[in-house]
Amino acid sequence: MTDENGDIAGSSALEATGLGRKYRRGWALRDVAFRLPAGCVCALVGPNGSGKSTLLSLAADLLAPTTGILRIFGHAPSAPEARARIAFVAQDKPLYPRFTVADTLRLGRELNPRWDQRAAERVVAEADVPLAARVGSLSGGQRTCVALALALGKRAELLLLDEPMSDQDPLRRRRMMGALMAEAAEHGTTVVISTHVLAELDGVCDHLLLIGDGRIRLAGESDAIQSAHRLITGARDGLDPGAGGHTVVERRTTGRQLTALVRSATAPVGDGWIVREPSLEDVLLGYLRSPDAPPLITAGARASSRDVVR
Amino acid sequence: MTARTVLTEGATGVLWLVRRQQRAFLWTFAALVVALAGYIVWQRVEMVGYLRDHGIDGCADWRTYCRGKRISDPVRGSGPLADAYFHVYDVYRPRLLDTGRLLLALPVVAGVFVGAPLIARELESGTYRLVWTQSVSRTRWLAARLALPTAALVVGTAILAALYTWWWRTARAITLTDVAWGTSVPFDASGPALVSLTVLCFLLGVALGLVIRRTLPAMAATLAATAGVRYGLGVLRPRLMPTRTLVSAADGDFGAIPRHVFSTSWRGMSNGYLTRSGGKIPWDRCSSADSADATERCFTRLGSTGRAYEDIHPASHFWPLQWIEAGICLAAALALAAFCARWIRRRPTGRAAA
Q1: Residues of A in contact with B20 (CB under 8 A)
Q2: Same domain (yes/no): B285, B335
């Protein structure tokens, strides 16, 4: 996908350098640096209060950063070029309760030049939400569908979804996610979905961004992150999981057995260990349980130092 | 898609949104304006009919005679002409003054119920995150959000102020000569003053809502602020133009000054006695004296010559004062709108949802 600025596929949808945001109670985000390539579907994972919503609000220009910069397709979030290219669904799905669903979609049409009414109506129809219903009378899950319809109808190139599925039943969650991913794949849309339940996004995301305590813990392609780790099990005594210079992310003992998550690209760690590839969830849990483990940012997710537009 | 089509489409689109959001207000306000306008027209027509039927139309109570009959200082029950005067005094005068007070509530309502919730509610309920992330810029959204209610308020209050001025000026000579025309009723309820005061109070509410971010506290603050504005204008108004000074004869008698000058002027600003050099000794300098003798001694001590003065705004000052006050209010309203635009650009920084 190209546009008037000559951005091409393979460029960054979202790029942060030295990004920080401080509230009165302290830093919500600090020294955040990463890039997301255009076209990826990224899970933004982290415990509650870790800074996920702050990061998304910064990208949506609802907050101004305290330090550093954030670029959306090379533009500052406050630039009109950025605003037209993002769609944001906030965690509490703010909508006008007195508007009907049809009014809400009309709002999208009136305020967005690239509006796709059919795509928006499809999402609403799939969730069996009547167009004449007042938004205030809808259930939480139905409101989420309307908010998603509004975001998809905007035909944005970057979708920022803050815990979009948290109030959906599993069946509808699966259906909505399917519809979302089909739309994204068809139009090459970059999607960032925040969640604190990774299982929600199992098999959907090709990129991962783990935030803990306002800092990036993991960033990059899911595959690369997963294959950069090994889960090793052995006897508790006499073995050092860090032998050979491997970074130990987490170690746990159960009985006389020691299980450790180590960062190791290739080599077996040593004799006496049972080595296997961890699931992505194993990796995430390991990092979440060990706040001091050093972060991992893959080559593809490192913020480039090249000059960005504006 | 070119930048130009984006801009124009955005402009009409955001107008649809604010119209949809203000639908209830627009209909309510339109109904209120029609009802009040109807009442004023009806009352004025009825009053003028009464004046004509009783032969006192075009008369003024500062003239001794009207159509050859003595009318000054009418006594209740002394004849049909006096009765007609008292009928106007008893029936139409209270309606005029009450209608004026009602119109004075319009700026307060515009500030508290239209202005204050306008953006505070969006900030409070989080819907600002919905509209500010559409393609239309925040500044354009604010412009439309302000323009539509402002236009409605200007049209509505202009109609009411014009009609009220029309009614009040017909009744003034008959029954309202003792009402100082520079006080809030009728001054702020008529002419461009009502229109500009309404716009100012509306924007005051918007700005307070934007800063306070919560609807109810913003409404309370706006109520206080509009009261402050009303009070401030009341203090400022007599000083907006230089007053004219009426001076009595050497014995303190104002008899040489035509009665209609007193009757049509806005009095009550300052009066007292003059010194030999022409300096003014206002009454309140000697207000602590407890008897007529003491008062006279007080003034003599201060150098009074016994020649009295009174500062007034003549009737010819009414319209200039109206336009000056309107100019002040509109300038303040414009400054508030600029403040809102700046604030919304610089400080979007609400708390994140998490």
Answers
A1: 99, 103, 106-107
A2: no
